[in-house]
TrEMBL record:
Pfam families: Syntaxin_2 (PF14523), TPR_12 (PF13424). Gene3D superfamilies: 1.20.5.110, 1.20.58.70, Tetratricopeptide repeat domain. Keywords: Coiled coil, Repeat, TPR repeat. The keyword Repeat applies. InterPro entries: SNARE, Syntaxin_N, T_SNARE_dom, TPR-like_helical_dom_sf, TPR_rpt. This is t-SNARE coiled-coil homology domain-containing protein. Residues 295-322 form a coiled coil. SUPFAM superfamilies: t-snare proteins, TPR-like. TPR repeats lie at residues 30-63, 72-105. The keyword Repeat applies. Signal peptide: none annotated. It comes from Rotaria sordida.
Amino acid sequence: MGDYSKTFEFYENALKIREKALSSNHSDLAAFYNSIGQVYTNIGEYSKALEFYERSHKILEKVLPSNHPHLASSYNNISQVYNHTGDYSKALEFGEKSLAIFQKTLPPTHPQIKTLIENIEYIDDCIDTWSTRMTSASDFQRLHNALSTNLTKISNNVMDLEKLVQKLGTPEDSEPLRERYHRLENETKILMQQTHDALEKLYNTRVTEVDQRRKKTLTDNLPKQYLATLNRFQKAQSIGAQKEKESLDRARAISFRQHKILDSPFADDFVSIPYDQLQKQAVLPIEQEIDTRALREREEQLRELETNIVEVNELYKDLAKLIHEQGIVIDSIGEYIINTEVNITNGNQDLKEAEADQ
């Protein structure tokens, strides 16, 4: 494979400089992400290659028209990664998207179109073969590849969530930021559930005795990766819920005090933050002049987040059972579940207090 350590060190340093100097949607940053993806593809690190190809693609989707050739090339890069990992349905999906753009922007006889058609025909053949001659070993490999891809996506989502959570309750806080946080949090929770279901299917997939050792080698590390990511996600949920609760309390207190009916010495009986304490806290623009409808929407968002936290805790419990059944030793699994339950208890109490304040 050659010595890529210096290459990656160069890319890491160069990436830090570019991410500081360029806007998050700059086309040069997309090109650099794509270059890193190509290096990972060359050495067979397909999960990392997919991570950087997708980062590049997200930027291109925002800054280029939908029929731009660069976007077609990006679709093709992603298709090739899925092809290498054996996820042929995904490879076909992105390959066809690439071909559709090139057919609109290039002459019919262009070599690029011919190459793409040949690639798609090859993928179609692979899918046909899988449909008629699927073996337990190939089925296992497909599930394993899908899980690895999911874990990469979840890890990226959690990193984005952690960045958004850091901004909650700060001067950078805003309605669009909260909408992104809630949307990404919910999408990640769904992806977590899908990954959990796939993990169960993976362990229930039978393989031959010859492939049993290979199965054990491939699966031993997956629950640990999943657990670590699940734990980070739960922490982001918990911190986000606490920050939103505190912000909602401040917004409610301000809203109530803006009504003359509460402009009395007894106003503190109606809100969870006394007036003297409220004066000492930094009130954000997003918490000022908020109407009753907006307050209810935020309360509903907080309830939905609390529900998602409960569901994630159930995933912890199911994962603990699965790990025990597979004989995998992870000392901290019980501690993770206990911490989660404590956070949920606090969250439920917070929500009851919020309802009592209404």
